[in-house]
Amino acid sequence: MAASGRTAGTSPPRPCKDKLRAAEGGKPGAQSAALTAAEPPRRAMPRFTVHIRDEWLAVACRDTSNTIQWLGQEALKRYIKNKPDNGGIGSVKETRFIVRRCQGSGLLDPDDTIDDVLEDNDFVELAIEGDTMSSEFIPCQPGVSNITAAYKEPAEYISLDGNSLTSTDLVNLGRGLYKIKLTLEAERKVVQARELLDTIVKENKVVYGITTGFGKFARTVIPVSKLKELQENLVRSHSAGLGNPLSPERTRMLLALRINVLAKGYSGISLETLQAMIQAFNASCLSFVPEKGTVGASGDLAPLSHLALGLMGEGKMWSPKSGWADAKYVLEAHGLKPISLKPKEGLALINGTQMITSLGAEAVERAQAIAQQADIVAALTLEVLKGTTKAFDSDIHSLRPHPGQTEVALRFRSLLDSDHHPSEIAESHRFCDRVQDAYTMRCCPQVHGITNDTIKFVQNIINTEINSATDNPMVFAERGETISGGNFHGEYPAKALDFLSIAVHELASISERRIERLCNPSLSELPAFLVNEGGLNSGFMIAHCTAASLVSENKVLCHPSSVDSLSTSAATEDHVSMGGWAARKALRVVEHVEQVLAIELLAACQGIEFLRPLRTTTPLEKVYDLVRTVVKPWIKDRFLSPDIEAVHRLLLDQKVWNVAKPYIEKYQTEYIPESRPVSPTAFSLDPPASPRKRVRHE
Q1: How far apart are CA 5 and CA 1, in angstroms?
Q2: Is residue 266 flagged as an active site residue?
Q3: Residue 310 and residue 507: Cα distance in Å, rounded?
Q4: Using 50, 70 and 90 to split pLDDT, how confident is the model at 86?
Q5: Where is this region: Disordered (predicted)?
Q6: pLDDT on residue 452
Q7: Which of 415, 474, 648, 684 has the fewest Cβ atoms nearer than 10 Å?
Q8: Residue 329 has pLDDT above 70, yes or no
Q9: How far is CA 464 from CA 458, 461, 470, 585, in A?
Q10: Cα 89 to the center of its chain, rounded Å
Q11: 156, 120 Cβ separation under 8 angstroms
Q12: By three-state DSSP, how is residue 457 classified?
């Protein structure tokens, strides 16, 4: 199987458990007696995990016909058992409380039976009347998208080898479309590197991060008896991040990417620990990873430490079954055990650029999708504003042959070429006296083009980083040595993502100006703010303000974070990349661009209404029809935010691109001759015919 290949249905082989185990310390013949008189296996007693205030409690239930009220009271009994003054609770029976699911926070009726509303190993929250919501309880909704809310366990696998993963694959792993397994070659290299580390420990060699402290403590030699504690302390002390947790999709990407990097076989992780990480990923058991706290060198230490902490059974974890809960309970509920760190494994888990890179992968994938669709939106606006296609003539762009500019101009021609997709709107103004259009329409190939070229540049860096070993020290099994280096420094992805923010922002900047032209009657020849009975109705007035505010926010967010550096770790780590913030703000910039273009698309479709019964080109009519499946025409003022969100969702799902793509590809692959419509501004260099040679028509 090719690395990064996908296989459906079959899961990786698992070691079989013995059906019967010999009775230890029993009488002779006890085992054979067990074989001849085997009893049917007992069904495990259902168990539920209940969160009360600051504690998680496991409650076994012999009879699932008991009620939710009974479950709550049983949990309260366990809660007060070891509490001074019973935790302030007088009588369990007289205590009033409500019970809700951790996943979704849905309230449970106290009179319902457990069997009817809960499944084995479900997680629930008990809130005592008079208490505020527990500070330890984290509801699942914040940061959980519709993708995760509808999560279904995938049947297909991606095989990781540390060399072949792409940004597209990584985003799909984040969306829960695939499980993970290792290639045989990756397993071999992981085992080989681990054997070298075990030899180093056995021979009491002094090697950074394996038998020494870290950073400023690199010269402190640690006794062999404390090497496990050294790695655990590293993860715990470095779990110092703050802020909201990464969404489950982004944590899934982070975990998948760390697995891929470890699969290269240069970090010294044991195959046992790596397989435990894969099992957690495949069960979607995801650690609580705060979004803030990394300076991007030595890698993303804080977020990756939080990722490792959950795998150790400490801190919080999320799964589709449990919502947020204590990590040890989430792992146990999925039949998993916390990882036990061997020498160097803590360092192997937390040293690298995976948070910058995983968030960067999402940013660049979304940037690519919105850049393609920006051309479609702008083409529709040009039609509504009765612009000309002459600025997209291939001869113009061949004189300045930047790849992105050429590509965008071709895309505009494929959407607007009247001879191949007749536009009644274009024909209606073909012989107008307008000489040329404003820059926001005429210069789209030049402005959108550099954005496309920058995205490709960034994507190349991100894909290289995805398959790079960014640990320290690196373990070279074939050379029999470990080498300290600086691959953990996040400057590459940090700089690239700052470039991405600057480039993709321009799509929103130019889009906002086109929205202004659509809404301004002196520029559009359309009703003010695209609505009838102006004054009574305000139409798109404030939608344009929203677009302007997002563009203004982007101007601040586009300030590069990677130009900053603060010395850390007692001047040991004296230059850092600040790549974590570069990645986070790149995502915000891309989201704002998507939203501004959603507003432009809505406004352009509304503009079409005032040009009816004239029709635009076939592909643009298809785009209009798509928008009208989620948003009806604007007849009078109504609540506008849901319309913007609905069209934003069309762009996120790339539905606008998918509708127009067949027409774009057909135009580009069939070598259709370029049409060059005649207009009053056109002229010929041929001399006029001589009067004596003029043909006389009778």
Answers
A1: 6
A2: no
A3: 39
A4: confident
A5: 1-41, 676-698
A6: 98
A7: 684
A8: yes
A9: 10, 5, 11, 21
A10: 44
A11: no
A12: helix
